[in-house]
Design brief:
By secondary structure, this protein is α+β, with helices and mostly antiparallel strands. The protein has three domains: 276 residues, Bira Bifunctional Protein, Domain 2 (BirA Bifunctional Protein, domain 2, 2-Layer Sandwich), CATH 3.30.930.10; 139 residues, Alpha-Beta Complex (YbaK protein), CATH 3.90.960; 100 residues, Anticodon-binding domain (Rossmann fold, 3-Layer(aba) Sandwich), CATH 3.40.50. The protein is 27% helix and 28% strand. The strands form eight sheets. Strands 3, 7, 8, 9, 10, 11, 12, 21 and 24 form a nine-stranded mixed beta sheet that branches. A five-stranded mixed beta sheet has the order 16-14-15-17-20, with helices on one face. A hairpin with a 5-residue loop joins strand 30 and strand 31. The radius of gyration is 29 Å and the shape is globular. The two termini are 34 Å apart. The structure holds adenosine-5'-triphosphate, magnesium ion (MG) and zinc ion. Adenosine-5'-triphosphate binds next to strand 8, strand 21, strand 24 and helix 12.
């Protein structure tokens, strides 16, 4: 492609709304353009990158026997009502009406549609297992769209779904492992280092889920890792051992005057007691599936040791709630009748109380007095808090907690989630009454797995991992072009040589961008570095007089003069060799 014939609106300006490298560089290199918050157009070189990532994904999906479809994004709400997610999903689901006032959704994911399609075709156990996928648009009304295409309101996803015979968890596990391996290959081929991380699988329980993370300080996910045994898990799901305290009983529970003491730290100082003796009490509002109004019965009190914090995802899963939010102070005062900051479950009725395991053994402890400026002291949890319905793991793991596998200290780092694989079970097949005739002559529900990859987010992550102060450094496997030809002046001999190399290479299916613009060389060099094509040759009269052109490698910034007559062959060899770095021999 000649530069003048394509559309690459590069810019020097750092756009104000962009704070992370990939977002800045995608805008500056003319890959994307913002239309509105969380909505971006892909411009030609952005599209070329996306197409390459899609093709890498396609190749690996085909290899594991996953079958490609293309589904609509405009979906009748009826399907979403059937699955229950019309009610469960909340404001992230984009809803609209057609001219006949019928409800529709712009699909954020496609379990419903694929289940609906397969329902009519899977009749017998002989039709299972089957894995289907598409690469298509998704819509999600994200609360905080940010980081450009990393978290957008509309984006491309590869989403795959597998169907297996009821109780054939081995078959599901096989597809799940195939996907996991395919994902590793996909990300490797894109030039990314990813870490598979054990992830939360929601309230359904027991089912497996794994996320593919790129470690990055800008990542929105927190990952817990044990450097000794290799345990890795998303914070939402991570478990740990904590320092145990041996408590001894110190008498009967008593109300104690604690004026102006509100925070855990104040309390710890005031009573001169370690935070391990304090019982932290939080009140949440839990919304269950299908409900759209909130009432008192849904308030839940959660307890954790004073030096720890509640993990809201764990609590939400324990409760089987679809949404969970901390109750605000006014609500607590009005609905439960306790001054915030002095809450505890002592003597409380009509509200569910759950506690983290760390609370179980506390004796001589302290909790709120359910009365302004008072706390209970000498609290013996077993004796004084019989209304705790369960002790379970509800705590947030801290850096330095101990690994439950090997006892070593855990580390925490941040990551970007690029892909997610998930064992679903029969939630959707049941909701859609999708049955097949099993070998024993009975009608049964297939079980499912689902498997997603964010396509633009993958491109952005590649940039996060591959850039420098001058711009992007594309791995050749996903680069918009392989070679950038930069004639110092596109005229005379330099033009002639540029045109010749250009047409010979594109005829051999190499992807070449020829900078034929009449601009100062400095501007062209800057653009070439910004766009980040792996190889560049600079063609100028001075070099040509000696029969040479300059070969430049974007990643290493190494320059070398090569004979113009051998340029084509050297370039081809370099490009081929570069590709081998992203190929998997297996
Ligand atoms: N708003 C978004 N913009 C761009 N890509 C997204 C967005 N939401 C999800 N993705 C991509 O789609 C993949 C599969 O979707 P999934 O529903 O598992 O994401 P998610 O759990 O909602 O992700 P997140 O926790 O980041 O919101 C994600 O791993 C991610 O790569
Ligand atoms: Mg999300
Ligand atoms: Zn360990």
């Amino acid at each position: 492609m000649k530069y003048s014939q394509t559309f690459i609106p590069t810019s020097k300006e750092v756009p104000r709304e962009a704070t992370i490298s990939s977002h800045i560089l995608m805008l500056r290199s003319g890959m994307i353009k913002k239309l509105s918050s969380g909505v971006y157009s892909l411009l030609p070189i952005g599209l070329r990158v996306i197409r390459k990532i899609e093709n890498i994904i396609r190749e690996e999906m085909d290899k594991i026997g996953s079958i490609e479809f293309q589904l609509p994004v405009l979906i009748p709400a009826e399907l979403w009502k059937k699955s229950g997610r019309w009610y469960a999903m909340g404001p992230e689901l984009m809803r609209l009406k057609d001219r006949n006032r019928q409800d529709f959704v712009l699909s954020p994911t496609h379990e419903e549609v694929f289940t609906d399609i397969m329902k009519d075709h899977i009749k017998s156990y002989r039709d299972l297992p089957i894995t289907v996928y598409q690469i298509g648009l998704k819509f999600r009304d994200e609360i905080r769209p940010r980081f450009g295409v990393m978290r957008a309101k509309t984006f491309l996803m590869k989403d795959a779904y597998s169907f297996h015979q009821e109780e054939d968890w081995d078959s599901l596990q096989k597809t799940y492992s195939d996907m996991s391996r395919a994902y590793k290959k996909i990300f490797y081929k894109c030039g990314l280092d990813t870490i598979p991380v054990e992830a939360d699988s929601g309230a359904m329980g027991g089912n497996k889920s794994e996320e593919f993370m790129v470690p990055s300080h800008i990542g929105e996910e927190e990952i817990v890792q044990c450097p000794s045994c290799g345990y890795v898990a998303n914070m939402e799901k991570a478990v740990s051992k904590i320092n145990e305290v041996s408590y001894t009983d110190c008498g009967n529970i008593e109300l104690y005057h604690t004026p102006n003491v509100k925070t855990i730290d104040d309390l710890s100082h005031f009573l001169n007691k370690g935070r391990e003796y304090l019982i932290k009490t939080m009140v949440y509002k839990a919304i269950s599936e299908g409900e759209d109004k909130k009432d008192e019965n849904q308030y839940v009190m959660a307890l954790v040791r004073g030096d720890l914090n509640i993990n809201e995802i764990k609590l939400k899963n324990y409760l089987g709630a679809v949404e969970l939010e901390p109750a605000d102070e006014r609500e607590i005062e009005e609905k439960i009748g306790i001054p915030p900051g002095f809450m505890s479950p002592v003597g409380l009725k009509g509200i569910r109380v759950v506690a983290d395991e760390s609370v179980r053994k506390i004796k001589c402890g302290v909790c709120g007095g359910n009365k302004r400026d008072y706390h209970f002291v000498n609290v013996n949890v077993e004796r004084d808090l019989p209304n705790i319905e369960a002790f379970t793991d509800l705590k947030t793991v801290r850096e330095g907690d101990f690994c439950t596998n090997c006892g070593n200290k855990l580390k925490i780092f941040r990551g970007i989630e690029l892909g997610h694989i998930f064992q679903l079970g029969n939630k959707y097949t049941k909701a859609f009454s999708m049955t097949y005739l099993a070998e024993d002559g009975k009608e049964k529900y297939p079980i499912m797995g689902c498997y997603g990859i964010g396509v633009e987010r993958t491109a952005a992550a590649v940039i996060e991992q591959n850039h420098d102060e001058d711009g992007i450094i594309w791995p050749i496997s996903v680069a918009p072009y392989h070679l950038y030809i930069l004639p110092i002046k596109y005229a005379g001999k330099a033009k002639e040589v540029s045109d010749r190399i250009y047409s010979n290479l594109i005829n051999q299916r190499y992807e070449v961008l020829l900078d034929d613009r009449e601009l100062r060389p400095g501007v062209k060099f800057k653009d070439a570095d910004l766009i980040g094509i792996p190889f560049r040759i600079t063609i100028g009269d001075k070099g040509l007089a000696k029969g040479k052109v300059e070969l430049y490698e974007r990643r290493t910034k190494k320059k070398e003069l090569i004979p113009v007559d051998e340029a084509e062959n050297i370039l081809k060899e370099k490009i081929e060799q570069e590709f081998t770095k992203y190929r998997i021999i297996s």
